[in-house]
Design a protein that fits this description.
There is one protein chain. The protein has 163 residues and is mainly beta. The chain is built from two helices and ten strands. Strands 6-7-8-9-4-3-10 form a seven-stranded mixed beta sheet. It is globular, with a radius of gyration of 17 Å. Pfam families: GFA (PF04828).
Length: 163
């Protein structure tokens, strides 16, 4: 929470070059299966939340924008490519996965289901395993050092020992 008791959210891209802060209530959270969202996110769907009347501030860097249609722009980190925004005439939405606490933002509706991939609904039924149990990757996972920005604001980035 912010000092005036409005909800406060932070987030940013994978490399830390672009960071944001949202003060106030978020709008609708959704996933969109349309082909444009699949391409923009490089995934089965895009998970987005509207910032509506909340105050959005870019606290480090700015997204680069791509005009994906005559009405919409997609914002992404110019350094690492992380999808950050969907901007349309009715307002801006942010990628849920870019928030520092994405578990707090649950989608409530699916859009673009005409393009939903045929196996998307079956994913929850697939067997699951923790990352470290992947035997083919375990040789490097044990020594893996992440260069990903942490899920909180930092004074500077990257750390001096990586700059």
């Amino acid at each position: 929470m912010s000092l005036d008791n409005k909800p406060l959210y932070t987030g940013g891209c994978q490399c830390g070059a672009v960071r944001f802060r949202v003060e106030g209530a978020l709008g609708d959270a959704s996933v969109c299966h349309c082909r444009m969202c699949q391409k923009a996110s490089g995934n089965f769907y895009a998970a987005l939340v509207s910032v509506r009347d909340a105050k959005l501030e870019w606290t480090r860097g700015q997204p680069k924008r791509f005009q994906s249609s005559n009405y919409a722009f997609r914002g992404f980190c110019p350094d690492c490519g992380t999808q950050l925004t969907f901007e349309a005439p009715e307002g801006m939405a942010l990628a849920i996965g870019a928030f520092d606490e994405p578990a707090e933002i649950a989608p409530r509706i699916q859009w673009g289901i005409e393009a939903k991939l045929p196996y998307a609904d079956g994913i929850p039924a697939l067997p699951g395993a923790e990352t470290i149990t992947d035997e083919e990757a375990s040789s490097y996972l044990a020594d893996l050092v992440s260069y990903q920005h942490p899920d909180h604001d930092t004074e500077t980035w990257p750390p001096e020992d990586r700059a």
